[in-house]
Amino acid sequence: MLEKFLKKSGWTDIVISIIFILFGIVLIANPEIIISSVAIILGIIAILIGVFRLYEYFKSDRTNRYLLATGIIAIIAGIIIMNCADTILSFFRILIAIWIICSGIMNLQTAIIWKEYQSKLWIMSIVLSILIVIFGVFILANNGAILQTIGSIIVAYGFVNIIENVIFIRKIDNYLK
Fold first, then answer.
1. Using an 8 Å Cβ cutoff, are 133 and 105 in contact?
2. Distance of alpha carbon 162 from its chain centroid, rounded?
């Protein structure tokens, strides 16, 4: 059962890494599309939430001022989001960096477990995990980094994470016995 869970987890990480690679390629090829798309999508979601809250307020007995306030705030936030793509980019960059750093740290923990099982691959796994963390810190620390550079790092992260997870999946049977 543990073996199936670990393999499924490894394959999930590979699928997520492929999505990151595709996202990175689009970011390299046309970063303006990503910035404007994310801003528009988040803005529309906020406006829809606001409209829904206002609908709930006017449909109810209008005593719940919380619905009115959150509805108005969400609509205003949606309009601001749609018009402030640069701010959205900074927020998105931070989220990606945190995701990558957390992924690297989790992979580092896995590498330490591999050492306990006396795997010969634990050193490579540690090096790859450290590289992942470094990529994440670079994205987090460089606010003015060129979007194409961030896209390249995201693509590299995806490939490194895929390599590490393929190694993990192939060797899981040997170490759980």
1. yes
2. 15
For 66-91, give the DSSP string. Answer: HHHHHHHHHHHHHHHHHH-HHHHHHH
**Exposure string for 135-168, b = 16+ CB within 10 A, e = fewer:** bbeebbeeeeeebeebbbbbbbbbebbbebbebb
Within 10 A of 85 (CB to CB), how many other CB atoms are there?
Answer: 20
Q: Using CA atoms, how far apart are residues 31 and 151, in angstroms rounded to an integer?
A: 9
* Among 68, 73, 140, CA closest to 104: 140
- Separation between Cα atoms, residue 71 and residue 89, nearest integer Å: 25
- 6 vs 136, more confident: 136
Is residue 48 scored above 90 in pLDDT? yes
Length, in residues, of the chain: 177
Sequence-ordered list of residues with C-beta below 8 angstroms from that of 5, at least 6 positions apart, any chain:
none
**Cβ neighbours around 27 below 10 Å, total:** 22
Both tokens of residue 80?
């601001």
CB contact at 8 A, 139 and 93: yes
Summarize pLDDT for 99-136 with one digit per residue, the tens. Answer: 889 998 988 888 887 777 776 777 888 888 899 999 88
CA gap 16, 159 in Å, rounded: 11
